[in-house]
Design a protein that fits this description.
- The structure is a homodimer of 313-residue chains.
- Chain A is an alpha/beta fold.
- Helices cover 31% and strands 16% of the residues of chain A.
- A 7-stranded parallel β-sheet of chain A has the order 8-7-6-9-10-11-12, with helices on both faces. A 5-stranded parallel β-sheet of chain A has the order 2-1-3-4-5, with helices on both faces.
- In chain A, helix 1 (12-22) crosses helix 10 and helix 4 (97-112) crosses helix 6 (147-158).
- The longest helix of chain A has 16 residues, at 97-112.
- The mean pLDDT of chain A is 95.
- At the A-B interface, helix 4 and helix 5 of A face helix 4 and helix 5 of B.
C-alpha cells in the first residue's frame, strides 16, 4: 500500500524537498494545495507532518489518518478535550536539547555577568566594574526533567552549579543533586537562584507558577520559561516582578502567541521576552526523526517519541 | 627568621584580614601605611603581595625582597626592560579559569542568540524570530593554550564546538581538535567563527592582531580579547569592524586602562567593551594560592605559578 504524506508546516517547501531528497519508499509527498481541494487531499493522506496548531483543524477531515508527526515538542493543540485519539502521534525530542540549553545559559550568563547594563554603560562611556558570582556558587532549579531538563542539568554540572530538579516521581536523575516531587514543591521553590521551566503543558502544570509560588522563591531568583506559556501565570509574574518577589524573568513562551502588542509583559521591569525561539524546529533536525519513524512505521515497529494521549506528553 | 609581608592592593584590608585569619607561622603582615614611612617598610619586607602596577614602583626600594605574589595573572608592569629579576615572582592561575570561561561563553551565546537585538525588539514590542546556529556548528579558535585557554576549550567541547588552538610549540592539547603554531598563524586565523585571545602580553604577542591578521579572518568572525590590550591593535580592530573584515569584537582589556572617554572604541559598531572584569581577582581565590605558596616558601620548595622572567609568563 502506498502511503500518502501531507505536510502542514510554516516550512512546507523545505520539508518537501528534504523528504523527497531521502527518496523514501512507497511515499507520496504533498504540500497543502491552494484552498479548495485541500479537504479531499486531507481525507486521502494517512500521514501528516507539521506544527500541531496547523494540523489540528484538519484532523476531523482526515479519514485515512494513521500517524501524525509533530514538528514541535509540545502538541497541546492536538490534545483538546474530545479530540480524536485513534492515530499514532509522535513528537520531536533530543534535537532541541542543545538549542534550549544554549538559550538557557545565554540568559543565565548574560544576567550573572550584567551584559545588558554593561552595554548601557558603554553607551555612556562609563568604565564601571560590577561584582558577579561564578556559576559554581549558584543553584539552578530545573522544573521538569525530561530530555531537555536533563540536558540543561548536564551543562549546569559542567559549570559546577548546584542542581535541583522537580519531577512527578521521586527518582534519582544524573547530574541532579536533589530531586523534588509535587509533595514538596514549596521546598523546591525556595532554593534556586535560576529557576528553569521545562515541564510539558498539562492540566497539572497549568499556572503552576502563580502568586503563591513566586512568594516562595528567593527575591534574587530569576525565572526562565522555555516550555509552554500556560505553566506561568502572566499576571502573577508581572506582579512578582513589580513587588520584587523575584528579581527577573526570561520568557520564551506565552499564553497567547505571538504576544499581543498590548500585553503589559513588554514593559514589565526585569522581564526579558523572546519570541518562542529558544528551540527552533529546524526542518533538517525534524526530518531526521521523521525518516527514522517512517522506517519504523513501514516495518510496524514502535515509533520514536510517541505521545501518550492520556498523560499529554 | 621572621618573614615580613607587605600588601599593595586595591583590596589591602580584605587581604590583610584573610591572611591574618589563616594564622601563618612567622609572618608579620603589613598594609601600606600613610605616605612617609612607606619606604622604610618596603625596605624591610621580604614578601610583597598585590597588583603588579601597584608593586612595580616599590621594587627599586625593596632591599630585602625575596618573593612577589601577584594578585593578577598578567605581570607586565614587573617585566619592563632593565627591571630587577633577583626575586621569585609568582602569578595566579586556575582561579580565573571559570570566571574567564563564563565571560567568554556569555558573549558567544549572547551574540549567537541575538540577545541585544532581542532586547531592542522588546522595547519596540516587536515579535521577530531570528535564525541562529547551535554552537555545535561553530568553530572556536583559542589563541593561547595556558590554563585559561584549556579551560575554555573544555567548555567549547561541552557545547560540541570544533576547537582550534594556537600556541608557541606544536603539542597535542586535550579538547583541542587542531593545534597551530606561529609557522601557520594565517592558517589558524582563517577558520574560527569565534576567536578568543588568552595569550600573555610579551614582545612576540604585541599587536599580533593587526590589520593583516583581521584581513585573514572570516568576515563573520567575532574577536574576544580577555588577556591583555597590547595583543590587539586598537586602530586595527576599529578599522576591521568599520570595513567589515570581521563581524564583531568583545574587548575586556585595552592598551590603556581605564579606557579614555575620548577613545573611538566606545562608539565603534559591533564592538562590545567590558571594564577589565572578565576574571576578577577575588581576594579569597588569591589568598588560597598565597597560603600554599607561603608553605612552600617556608619549606624552600618550588612555588606555584612562578613567572619565568625571560619568557615573560
Amino acid at each position: 500500500m502506498k502511503n500518502r504524506l501531507l505536510i502542514l508546516s510554516r516550512d512546507t517547501n523545505r520539508y518537501e524537498s528534504l523528504i523527497k531528497g531521502l527518496g523514501p519508499e512507497d511515499l507520496e509527498i504533498h504540500g497543502l494545495p491552494a484552498e479548495g481541494d485541500a479537504k479531499a487531499l486531507v481525507g486521502r493522506c494517512n500521514i501528516l507532518l507539521g506544527e500541531p496548531n496547523r494540523i489540528a483543524p484538519h484532523i476531523p477531515a482526515a479519514a485515512s489518518l494513521q500517524w501524525v508527526q509533530s514538528t514541535f515538542a509540545g502538541v497541546e493543540p492536538l490534545l483538546t478535550p474530545g479530540s480524536r485519539r485513534d492515530y499514532l502521534l509522535t513528537g520531536v525530542k533530543k534535537v532541541f536539547d542543545p538549542y534550549m540549553g544554549e538559550y538557557v545559559f545565554a540568559y543565565i550568563l548574560a544576567l550573572e555577568r550584567h551584559l545588558f547594563e554593561t552595554l548601557e554603560n558603554q553607551r555612556n562611556r562609563t568604565w564601571r566594574q560590577r561584582p558577579y558570582q561564578s556559576l559554581a556558587d549558584r543553584l539552578i532549579g530545573i522544573c521538569g526533567l525530561g530530555s531537555i531538563g536533563r540536558h540543561i542539568a548536564r551543562t549546569a554540572k559542567h559549570f559546577n552549579m548546584t542542581v535541583w530538579g522537580f519531577k512527578r516521581k521521586d527518582q534519582r536523575v544524573q547530574d541532579v543533586d536533589r530531586v523534588f516531587t509535587p509533595r514538596n514543591f514549596n521546598g523546591f521553590l525556595k532554593g534556586p537562584d535560576y529557576m528553569v521551566v521545562t515541564l510539558p503543558a498539562t492540566d497539572n502544570t497549568r499556572h503552576l507558577f502563580d502568586e503563591a509560588a513566586f512568594g516562595q522563591m528567593k527575591n534574587s531568583a530569576v525565572l526562565i520559561n522555555v516550555s509552554r506559556g500556560s505553566i506561568v501565570s502572566e499576571p502573577a509574574v508581572v506582579g512578582a516582578l513589580e513587588k520584587g518577589l523575584i528579581k527577573g524573568a526570561v520568557l520564551d513562551v506565552f499564553e497567547k502567541e505571538p504576544l499581543s502588542d498590548k500585553s503589559p509583559l513588554w514593559t514589565c521591569p526585569n522581564l526579558f521576552i523572546t519570541p518562542h525561539n529558544a528551540g527552533y524546529s529546524f526542518p533538517e533536525d525534524v526530518v531526521s526523526i521523521f525518516a527514522e519513524n517512517y522506517r519504523r512505521f513501514m516495518n510496524r515497529k514502535p515509533l520514536l517519541y510517541q505521545i501518550d494521549f492520556r498523560r499529554g506528553y
